[in-house]
Amino acid sequence: MCVCVCVCVHPGKVRWQDFDQDLYVGATVVRPGQDPYARNKFNQVESDKLRMDRAVPDTRHDHCRHKQWKSDLPASSVVITFHNEARSALLRTVVSVLKKSPPHLVKEIILVDDYSDNPEDGALLGKIEKVRVLRNDRREGLMRSRVRGADAATAPVLTFLDSHCECNDHWLEPLLERVAEDKTRVVSPIIDVINMDNFQYVGASADLKGGFDWNLVFKWDYMTQEQRRARQGNPIAPIKTPMIAGGLFVMDKEYFEQLGKYDMMMDVWGGENLEISFRVWQCGGSLEIIPCSRVGHVFRKQHPYTFPGGSGTVFASIQSRLEMKKRLNCKPFKWYLENVYPELRVPDHQDIAFGALQQGGNCLDTLGHFADGVVGVYECHNAGGNQEWALTKDKSVKHMDLCLTVVDRTAGSLIKLQGCRENDSRQKWEQIESNSKLRHVGSNLCLDSRSARMGGLTVEVCSPSLTQQWKFTLNLQS
């Protein structure tokens, strides 16, 4: 007996397989002699070469590949906002959602065009099945654009994606399953890195959680040893996370509205991930990273868009959010620090400067050494740990209870880690030259990395050398 399957497409729409990629992408290709990075801050030439349905490596843990997901999950509206996105990247995002998701779980893809220069960037994609396009009549920024998309959504669950993503196999089911079990959960996939230069998949570590530093910049944190031990029996268990990256997450639509959506006074881009993460945790919800969900994302080193009026003018009153916090009976930030992110070290009242001590792309690092060990530099990972330091008011450079110590007060002498002692002149340091150098008080020599590869950091005669330039993540005095 022959069984016929009918694939219904709305009149005027086409299946993604029938969309003319060459015509759509070809209209905006980089011309000979043009900079392929100029418009998007990633290599548009390489992006444009890729097919919209290119194969990507399955980066999931083996356990995920044999897991059966529930079939009666709620459908989702996928909201994707963009401003002047490369057409090839935007198209791959849309196609990957349709190709990699069970059809009954994606009710619609809502593209919110935040006043891109060319309206057809989004309008032409509106021909694809399930795709709806909303265009702002002026620049609104990420938060207001996402809220507009969420307000238009007709499914019970919202999925937010950036406009330069590629979804992996069975990415959606594990996210929807967790939200269906508890509507106050906000869940995020593991975000695989797509190289901005050649668009190859780099992957991502599966033992990271989201965090932030005291400049209020998102960073990835390694799970604590206790957290890793607890997961040994189930490496694909959800990961409780203090913070989500913000570009890719799923949450119940009713809960999103109840929680206050986004702060509509926030402009352009940035900081919304911290704000919504704090709000979820403090107001009764939880955040999780779901290891069986993997989505690739192009990470850029620069913003490809402008901040109208300048980035320093995007501050606004938070009075309405404070009133909402009171109305929802949310817990104080102190509760968040003590119960959600206790491993985040709060700067002490004795600290002058705090965080990583950076020199270019490298940071001062204990290299895993303890008392009487040398220190060196290592690529900055922004995860604290061996790279977390404090300069105190009593002029100590501390890592936990160990201090940078000058054993021999002569140029070329190695720096050692030794237990901090209150009045030890060998451990006294001060910032000089607009906080760009660390000078040892007792010898007037400066912390120097020139010999780092040959044995460790040293003190040397102070000079303009780049090996003596150091910058703390956070300076608490000017």
From TrEMBL:
It is a single-pass type II membrane protein. It comes from the Eukaryota. It is found in: Golgi apparatus membrane; Golgi apparatus, Golgi stack membrane; Secreted. Keywords: Disulfide bond, Glycoprotein, Glycosyltransferase, Golgi apparatus, Lectin, Manganese, Membrane, Metal-binding, Phosphoprotein, Proteoglycan, Secreted, Signal-anchor, Transferase, Transmembrane, Transmembrane helix. It holds the Pfam family Ricin_B_lectin. Its EC number is 2.4.1.-. Signal peptide: none annotated. GO terms for biological process: protein O-linked glycosylation. InterPro entries: GalNAc-T (IPR045885), Glyco_trans_2-like (IPR001173), Nucleotide-diphossugar_trans (IPR029044), Ricin_B-like_lectins (IPR035992), Ricin_B_lectin (IPR000772). GO terms for cellular component: extracellular region; Golgi cisterna membrane; Golgi membrane. The keyword Chloroplast does not apply. The keyword GTP-binding does not apply. Pathway: Protein modification; protein glycosylation. Residues 348-473 form the Ricin B lectin domain. Its cofactor is Mn(2+). It catalyses: L-seryl-[protein] + UDP-N-acetyl-alpha-D-galactosamine = a 3-O-[N-acetyl-alpha-D-galactosaminyl]-L-seryl-[protein] + UDP + H(+); L-threonyl-[protein] + UDP-N-acetyl-alpha-D-galactosamine = a 3-O-[N-acetyl-alpha-D-galactosaminyl]-L-threonyl-[protein] + UDP + H(+). GO terms for molecular function: carbohydrate binding; metal ion binding; polypeptide N-acetylgalactosaminyltransferase activity. Its main location: Golgi. Catalyzes the initial reaction in O-linked oligosaccharide biosynthesis, the transfer of an N-acetyl-D-galactosamine residue to a serine or threonine residue on the protein receptor. Has a broad spectrum of substrates for peptides such as EA2, Muc5AC, Muc1a, Muc1b. Probably involved in O-linked glycosylation of the immunoglobulin A1 (IgA1) hinge region. Involved in O-linked glycosylation of APOC-III, ANGPTL3 and PLTP. It participates in the regulation of HDL-C metabolism. Belongs to the glycosyltransferase 2 family. GalNAc-T subfamily. This is Polypeptide N-acetylgalactosaminyltransferase.
